[in-house]
Predict the 3D structure of the following.
Amino acid sequence: MKKKEITRGIVVISAVALLSGYLLSQVFEVTKPRIDEQKKIEADRLNKEIFPEGVSFAEVDEKDLSYTAVYDADKNPIGRIYQIRPSGYGGAIAVRVGFDNDFKVKGVRILEHNETPGLGAKIKDAPFLDQFKGKSGNELYLKKYNKEGTLDAVTGATISSKAVSDGIRKLQEKLNPVVLPSSSGDEGENEENKEGL
Amino acid sequence: MKKLIDFRSFSLGLWKENPIFYIMLGLCPTLAVSATLKDALGMGIAFVFVLTGSNITVSLVRKLVPSHVRIPVFIVILASFVTLADYSLAAFSPQLHRNLGVYLPLMVVNCILLGRAEAFASKNNVINSTLDGLGMGLGFTLAIVIIAFLRELPGQGTLFGVNVLGKNYTPFLIMIMPPGAFFVIGFLIALKNSMDRRVKKKC
């Protein structure tokens, strides 16, 4: 190939790359505010679904565990929302779970999953997720795995259901470790653990 | 002598040389995004935009690009239009953007786009390249929507998410999974071939 052709080739590719890079950066600038806004709207919507009484939400970054703090109209903290990614049947499942001040589940939402349509995918539907409300500790087991469990798995989707329930239960246990029964009441133990966080 | 405006460039892509059923390119996103009508339509619209835009651009610069660097140049142009579509959807239609997922950026290596740039837009004027982009794009959309119709209805009992087969319908789940997609495409290609053969016999 002649030198002239090679040079011409380099010039053209560089020109095309530079021009398209510039144009795309402009488009990015224009759409970025809108994209960020959409993400915020989506996040707010989810937070409201999990905590309908929540008036304001704030992101908190704490060492190894970040969460969304929920406040009511008087700026009292009424709970926290966490995000976990347990491994399901088809990969990681993004789960958003809210706890009230007693570390009972307030609500659960599935953000992303790769579970089988019509089977594991049903973990994102209300019949499965509504079961979690108000529960804590060993109640957060699927019935078939623990006699204290209160949760029914989605029919034909045990692995997906177990991933979500185990993930939520393990998070709950981490946040509110059950101390062996002592003479002091339950309330005292909860106060102690919250401070430990 | 090539015509300045050749409407055949538009009509061929719609059916006779349909990119999915005849040329058989770009089958990957077709199979993946055709489980629901809503996603199929969204993918089709994004595709028409990207294909037409890139065809126009390739045609505009066809005399300036030396032959030995044309492939990288085409790919840069394609990737730019796909990115444009990606940002626009993320900003104005986040639900659709989420449903198309990874298949939107994957359009960069969609063979239909590169194929039309190489086979048509680099050798024809802007007007015809626009028509080709629109025709092939709409042909693709037509194909993917038909497939989605044949998958969503038996597979979920819904059309565009609206239940039409009643509450007691047990969904034929395999239709919304990959094997179902292959069944439908194979069947439709066979159908088109037999229809074309019958038309040829008449001539």
User: Anything to note?
Assistant: The radius of gyration of chain A is 24 Å. Chain A has four helices and five strands. The mean pLDDT of chain A is 84. Helices of chain A lie at 3-50, 126-129, 158-175, 186-196.
